[in-house]
Design brief:
The complex is a heterodimer. Chain A is mostly helical. Helices cover 60% and strands 0% of the residues of chain A. The model of chain A is unreliable at 1-8 and 291-307 (pLDDT under 50). Helices cover 75% and strands 0% of the residues of chain B.
Chain lengths: 307, 205
């Protein structure tokens, strides 16, 4: 017996004359009874008329699936358009190109859009000719006054810089809304908005001034007592450890939602240190003002402008 | 396989091309004589299938009657889809359509009976319980009947259509609404189950 025959013996067709076929052939079927046809005809005659066809034609399965896919694509497109139009995608940090940019990328012509005005930090005024040389730790009233002067100078520049950033953000947001076809505030509304922001900024500066005045008073008392000021006296905070610095880097890489949550979980000192670092990075990105005249103050002795 | 008194299914189920479309049109026109002709042509084959599926002559008659009445109801739609003289008319096989209806009706009734009785018919063959079932059925009826009725309903339909009715696999698959590969797999399992059941009876397959 060949291999094929052995295989067919187990799984192939039932061969006529085989024992299984002989057994199966014993299962006969009776004939239909006489009068069966009349019975069926009578039932057919008595059967109610079939229902009329559905008004809506029965479509094929392929057509139904295609219809569902088309509806799904159209729904997704409508939702995506609505999300883009309402600015939701930009809140989720998903860039949405404007129609002008898309058209320019298709046609290959660069849009002649006006570049946003760069924010220029206010140039620091040149130091006075009678500058006090700070040598070593700050332990004299003159050195302290010179420090206060430099700090005020940096703070003034920083305030100008902050106002310029706010102004640039307002302008770019209005520009974005205009490009997206969204309503933009009227000049009166914009003026009201700027006034409110200015009010908030001024209140913040006043709080900072009050805190700085209190700290300066404490520093002056310390210097009058003949004590030298430390970095902590000047900044009012502890130095940032390398571990904390590493955490800041991790924080920077987080998505916006998680970053805000992690920010809230930081201690006030860590938050302040991180803000300093961010401020320094932002200042580095801005166009640098013309270099001031070289000062005769050693760099390491310059107090940190973070008061 | 049919007995000597039964006509060969292949000759009985092979009307001239396009002939079925004309008969469908006549049934759609509510001609009793046309339905009578359909019963005469296909009734016996449907009855054999239904009887071998259910093992009950009355149940088989009910299935044939229901299949014929469905033809009576659906004839207008069938005739509309296959107008006489068209290419679609040449492809129409009322015998195949009736076989599919009867096979599905038989499977439905077997499943309903199983649900009502609470019994379980295994989809996969199982040697020992199947042997017990075969022995019990053999005491009631003959061995072949108990072998066929011991199969799950779809395997049973595959054996009835291909072995007893001698339908080609493609036509049997069409009658069971299956693709040919799935049907051949089902038929393979059915034959294996039959051979195992027979072996359990003590005979070599």
């Amino acid at each position: 017996m060949s291999v094929n025959e052995q295989a067919n013996r187990g799984t192939g067709p039932i061969a006529p004359g085989s024992p299984l076929a002989r057994v199966l052939d014993g299962y006969g079927a009776p004939d239909l009874p006489a009068g069966f046809a009349e019975r069926v005809l009578a039932a057919a005659e008595a059967r109610p008329a079939p229902l009329p066809d559905l008004r809506r034609p029965v479509r094929s399965r392929r057509w139904r699936i295609g219809q569902r896919i088309a509806i799904g694509v159209a729904s997704f497109g409508a939702l995506a358009s609505a999300a883009a139009a309402t600015g939701l995608l930009e809140q989720l940090a998903i860039p949405v190109p404007s129609a002008n940019k898309v058209w320019a990328s298709l046609t290959g012509s660069a849009p002649a859009a006006a570049a946003p005005e760069p924010v220029v930090a206010a140039p620091a005024p040149a130091p006075t000719s009678a500058a006090v040389v700070i040598d070593g730790p700050i332990d004299t009233p003159e050195e302290l006054q010179e420090t206060f002067r430099r700090v005020d100078q940096v703070r003034a520049g920083r305030r100008e810089e902050r106002r310029a950033i706010i102004d640039q953000r307002i302008k770019s947001e209005i520009e974005r809304r205009r490009a997206a076809g969204l309503p933009v505030p009227a000049p009166e509304e914009e003026a009201r908005l700027r006034a409110r922001i200015e009010q908030a900024v001024t209140a913040r500066e006043q709080r900072a001034d009050a805190a700085a005045a209190a700290r300066r008073e404490a520093m002056q008392r310390k210097v009058e007592n003949g004590e030298a000021l430390t970095r902590e006296d000047m900044t009012g905070r502890k130095p940032v450890s390398p571990e904390a610095r590493e955490r800041f880097r991790g924080l920077r890489d987080l998505p916006p939602g998680e970053r805000a949550k992690a920010w809230r979980e930081l201690s006030p000192e860590e938050r302040r240190a991180l803000a300093d670092e961010l401020r320094a990075r932002r200042a580095a990105r801005l166009p640098q003002p013309p270099a001031p005249e070289p000062a005769d103050v050693p760099a390491q002795d310059t107090p940190p402008p973070s008061e | 396989m049919n007995t000597a008194t039964e006509p060969a299914p292949a000759t009985m189920l092979a009307p001239p091309p396009g002939d079925d479309a004309a008969w469908a049109a006549r049934v759609a026109a509510r001609e009793p004589q046309a339905l009578r002709e359909m019963i005469a042509r296909h009734g016996a084959a449907l009855h054999r299938v239904a009887y071998r599926m259910t093992g009950d002559a009355h149940e088989a008659e009910d299935i044939v009657q229901e299949a014929m009445l469905r033809l009576w109801d659906n004839a207008p739609a069938i005739a509309a889809k296959h107008p006489v003289g068209s290419q679609a008319a040449a492809r129409l096989r009322l015998g195949g359509w009736l076989q599919r209806v009867a096979t599905n009706l038989a499977i439905d009734r077997l499943r309903r009976a199983r649900r009502l009785s609470g019994g379980e018919v295994p989809e996969e063959e199982d040697g020992a319980p199947l042997a017990d079932a075969v022995i019990e059925a053999g005491e009631r009826d003959n061995l072949a009947r108990s072998l066929v009725l011991g199969l799950p309903e779809r395997q049973r339909a595959a054996i009835v259509l291909t072995y007893y009715e001698e339908l080609p696999n493609a036509e049997a698959a069409e009658a069971m609404d299956m693709n040919i590969k799935a049907f051949e797999s089902l038929l393979h399992r059915a034959r294996t189950a039959l051979r195992q059941a027979l072996t359990a009876q003590g005979d070599a397959p």
